Amino acid sequence: MSFSGVLVETAMNVAFPTLMKQFGLATNTVQWMNSIYLLFISVIVPLSAILKSSFKTKHLFVTANLLFFAGLLLDALAPNFAILLLGRTI
Fold first, then answer.
1. Would the pTM of this model clear 0.70, i.e. be above it?
2. How many CB atoms lie within 10 A of CB 84?
3. Which long-range contacts (C-beta less than 8 Å, at least 24 apart) are formed by 1-6?
4. pLDDT tens per residue, range 7-43
5. What angle in degrees, to the nearest 10, is found between the helix axes of 2-14 and 27-54?
6. Alpha-carbon distance 71 to 9, whole Å?
7. Which helix (H) or strand (E) holds 41?
């Protein structure tokens, strides 16, 4: 999952021009979207220690994978920018 996270972050930065063109957005809007995603990740990483002490590792792993694939599916099917942002957050 760490590899997938790094891959998604890298793809996001490379996709700035495509996102700007596809959705008719300014650079600062796309940068804000990336910043919100990275902020969310910076909250989840320390929170993972608390989650690990409260839940079994297997349940956390399965839940993380399901959320990752749900977000990926939501991104793939997104008709607009707001749903694309929601999928990135999941």
1. no
2. 19
3. 1/64, 1/65, 1/68, 4/68, 5/41
4. 777 777 788 888 888 888 898 888 888 888 778 877 8
5. 170
6. 14
7. helix 27-54
Task: Answer yes or no: is pLDDT of 62 > 90.
Answer: yes
33 exposed, middle or buried (CB, 10 Å; 0-12, 13-18, 19+)?
buried
Residue entry with tokens 């590792």:
57
| Amino acid at position 86, single letter | L
Q: Which residue has the tokens 């409260």?
A: 54
Residue keyed to tokens 């809007």: 29
Strand, coil or helix: 5 = helix
